[in-house]
Structures are given as structure tokens and as C-alpha cells.
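REVIEWER CHECKLIST
Item 1: Sequence provided? yes
Item 2: Single chain? yes
Item 3: Sequence as submitted:
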Amino acid sequence: MEELLNPKSVHTREVVLAKPCPVPAEPGIYAWFFKEIPHSVPIDGCLKYKDLTLLYIGISPQKASPRKGKRSSQNLQRRIKTHFKGDASISTLRMSLGSLLVDRLNIVLRQVGKTKRFKFSHKDEDRLSRWMEKNAMVTWHVCTEPWIFEDQLIKEQNLPLNLQGNKKHPFHSSLLLARKTAREKAKQMPVVIK
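Item 4: Structure as written out by the authors:
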């Protein structure tokens, strides 16, 4: 995990979304480092890399559930691209960042379409993407069973934006509250029909 926690380089949104994409289409674990920290996120004890702070790690694919019995077809390339250009309904990182940055970016979570999925409007997702372009950088490590390393890193590192497996973190309840507040506000507004 040395290359994940002390990377030779980190990659911007522009680099990841370029063709060819430098992210391998293989299983693994990824780490997100940030330049600007969303207000209220505690960073004491967080790992630093140059002028960046490690706030979140993720894996792809997830461990196969006993019920389903098979792993998803996700890989590092798909997942990292989803975080950079997807929307809050399919990226927990975007949901967390957006919920913490609603005032800073003047964005609003909404319920969208027949399924009423929670996401930011198109223009608001664009604002969040632009913020990530300036402030979020990612690195990765290819491995066949990334969930083993994820559990270990969540125990060993201060990762305030990780929710799953991180209930003991002092910011966990604050992050859940920010996400809940954004969803509650969205429920009070009309559903956006695509």
C-alpha cells in the first residue's frame, strides 16, 4: 500500500478523462487527495501528500455478497471516472462532497425522474465537477481483493469522507447529517422531470 499512501503521482480529472485513460480497467483500491477541504471536515491526523490531504479511499469492485455470489463487473477505470463525471446518485463521494459544499458552490440536491433518485441538477453537477477538477486528485493500486486493503486502511488512516466501516470516526455523524439534510431539502421541492 506504500504506492497508494505515498504515491509517485496523483491524477486530475482532466488526465483521468483523457484518451487514452491512464487508469487501468482492473480491480483495485484508489485514494482521493484534496487541495481545498470542504468547510467543517477535520483534517488533523490526515495523511498529507505535498499540498494535498487524503480524505477518502474506495475500491472496485466491491466484495461479492453471499446472497448474490458474484462480484460486479466494475473496475478502477469505470469507478474513478464515475466519481469524476457521474452524478451523486451513483457516486457516494460526489454525494458527500456535494452535501458538504452546498453553500460554497450554491448547489442543491434534487429528486430526479420517475425513480426520484437523489442527484444535483445538471448545472449543479457541472459545478461540482469543476470544483473536483481544481481540488480532487486520485491515485490507485491494482489488486485482486481490494476489500482486504480497504478495511485495513480505514482502521489505520484518518479518512473523514469514508462512511462504510468508519462509524468510529468523529466526523461520521456530521457527514451523515449533511447528506440527510440535503436529501430532506430535496424532498420538499418538486421532483425534476427529465
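Item 5: Key structural point noted by reviewer: The chain has a mean pLDDT of 94.
Item 6: Recommendation: ____
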